User: Fold phosphoserine phosphatase from Nymphaea colorata.
Amino acid sequence: PVASTLGIPHENIYANELLFGSSGEFVGFNTEEPTSRSGGKAVAVESIKK
Assistant:
């Protein structure tokens, strides 16, 4: 919601996807997202700049 209020396109949003178990407990995050790795924020910024 905040991104749309600020006019940030959906394709320019990079964030860790949190994963939860069947009881609602946090079990980890999606390691495929660039922001989940060291240096991932720089990768996301470069992608946005293109």
The chain has a mean pLDDT of 91.
